[in-house]
Write a structure and sequence with these properties.
The complex is a heterotrimer of chains A (about 400), B (about 130) and C (about 230).
Chain A: H1 2-9, H2 13-50, H3 67-77, H4 88-105, H5 123-132, H6 134-144, H7 148-179, H8 184-189, H9 204-220, H10 245-270, H11 280-283, H12 292-321, H13 329-357, E1 394-395, E2 400-401
Antiparallel strand pairs in A: 1-2
Chain B: H1 2-21, H2 26-46, H3 50-72, H4 86-117
Chain C: H1 2-9, H2 17-38, H3 42-62, H4 66-91, H5 94-97, H6 103-126, H7 128-131, H8 144-150, H9 164-169, H10 172-192, H11 203-209, H12 214-221, H13 223-226
Helix pairs in contact in C: 2-3, 3-4, 11-12
Classes of the chains: A mainly alpha (about 400), B mainly alpha (about 130), C mainly alpha (about 230).
Amino acid sequence: MADFLINTVGLPEWLAWTITAFVAAALILNVIAGGALVFIWAERKIAARIQDRLGPTRTGGRFGWLQSLADGIKLLAKEDLMPEGADGMLFRLAPYISFCASFCAFIALPFAFDFVGQRLNVGVFFVVAVLGLEVFGVILAGYASASKWSLFGAMREAAQVVSYEVPLGMCVVVPVMLAGSMDLVTIAEKQAGWMTNWYLFHDPFTFVIFWVYVTCAVASVNRAPFDLAEAESELVAGFHTEYSGLRWSFFFMAEYGSMFLVSALAAVLFMGGWNGPIPVATLVGLSEGTGDTANYFVRLIGCGNLLLKATLGVLLMMWVRWTLPRLRIDQVMTTCLKYCTPIAAAMFAGAMLWQLAFPGGVVRGLSRPAGEIREGWLEGPGGLSPGRREPVPHVGAVGAMESQEVVQVVP
Amino acid sequence: MSLLATGLPFAAVPLVAGLLSSPVGVAHYLVVGAILFTAGVVCMALKRNALGVLMGIELVLNGANVNFVAFSSPYLRGEGAASLGLDGQIIALFVILLAAAEAAVALAITLNFYNNHATVDIDRAEDLKG
Amino acid sequence: MMTTVLASVVPVAAVNWHSVLFLLFAAVACACAVAVVLADNVVRMAFYLVLSLASTAGLFFLAGAEFVGAMQLMIYVGGTLVLLVFGVMLTAQAPFVAIKTSPSDRVLAGMVGAALLAVLLQAAFRVEPWRRPATAAVAAPAATPIGMALLGVRADEPAAGVPAAAVRSGYLLPFEIVSIHLLVVLVGAAYLARAKRRRTPRAIDVAASSVGPVVTARQAARSSASALVPGGGR
């Protein structure tokens, strides 16, 4: 897009880059905010259905479509209260820290082949790391509110973070190992083709570890049954007891943003990212390289794929939330440290051995030939042989995909 | 006061302008590392809260890390400057890992101290004084 | 006004965005580091430290050390500092939130700090090649060589004067030593920080023999967790 602005519109370079950056930021912001609106509505409807109720039915038509918008307007109009003994600066900043962490993690998330804020070679790592910063907002909010309920929520959150980060990291390592790269774009690209190429179905170990990942992901976004930080039946509302109005809604946006993010990450790591279960686009002859418009179309479909998968993940989390009871804090720690961590470690070793035994995948006919799964770093740019800089073509099972190499050159 | 408020930015203009238009070198990073390091040392010396001292240590380690990364980075290397290459980044990684270990132990000691003495003021830790 | 003056001095096209981002991150890192020193409230100190370390991670990204930057965010900021904040909260009772230092100590520490800073800055600017800005355009950074080096295979060219055997061995041994060290340290820390209380009978035994109320015994047994449950001493 920057190239287009520079070459076609004739804007100066700096302006073009700035505009591009703002457009990208606005798009990501829309995913979070728009997603939150839709998901809050969906959550209300799903919760209602699970509890045999109707949910919102009046606002904005038959299904209460506009309920979250109405809620948003109500929140905007609410008075912004701050408790008397609160630490003013931290109290005001905390929601924005949460939101910023959630937002920043989206930077490295690829929505489709080229639809990524900034392609990082440590993408997975970056996303998980930045997502981990969200807890600071929660902890600071809990402390700064000068309320016992909030402080309890914050303490529980801190204890919970230390527990789930370990197995979460281990789960994430498995697809990284299979793909031979931490770049999210590369990882998704390696799963192109039929859905048997997804790492979810790569071997039994990855299938198990996917569910471990789901458990840890639910813990990482503070959703029931791991919502100890805001346990509303014990701690009033936990860390956001004292918040109201816009700041409170920022916490909510951060929560729904991270829900979407961990689901999208699961989609990229285990479910082929933007590659659909059936490679429709390549079957009908559309592929990367057919032409600019076709490219764009394919990527748009891919983007839809990813959004669909991520939404399914979010819906799964809602289902879980309204089905399972909340765990106690020691049960959370037991779940994460005593069960998830050893399982993840064992599955990691298993996946490693499986990769050693069947380097070409199990279903030969549908997977790509073994020769294609050679380690890309040996000859990739920035890999072992310096000096080689031309893009390495990754030939997919069905269609040829040219991998575009993003070479950053610092001026 | 008003003269200071308006004069200072004007005095800073050429400096900032020079920084903005020229690429960053190793020395820039070294300055940041030096400031972090000094802040950490002063923090260690000044704080009476045991956790404050711990934070000072983190700052010192971080300042050292900035230097390691700066020396190893191919982006910052000027003509004729020696480089740490990969070693710098790996040492930085080890520093981060060991800082985690150090923080865990220091925190455990602090909590133990707090349990036994009901304070975190390190000036009160004088049981071993002869 | 500042910006207009700046714009007149530097043509916008000449602005080096890498430098701008560097200045941004560097300013936040340094300002927050100084704020850690100046703040009295221990929770705020922790908050400033988080900001400082996070922007240092940004500096690492700008220097092309993306893996180190992500590691810094994950382990340092996401792990170590959470632990630290946890410790702060466990001990942050009113008298300890802000322990004041005497003014004379402050002056002394300020002088020492200023002297140290002067020495370091002079050292930073003394070596001439360090002041020269980067010239070469290099390939995009990759994390693989670091991983390979940790596993014992060096991918980059060794520095001059290093024996070949040392290069070939890479960092496998230090890596293993650090891993074991971490394990030992964590076990030791857990041992050190354990709650020293008389071992109470487990809740299930109590329930079986129906001696005493279950709730109390269970909460006493889970002493580490009971701090996190409201009304833990109930």
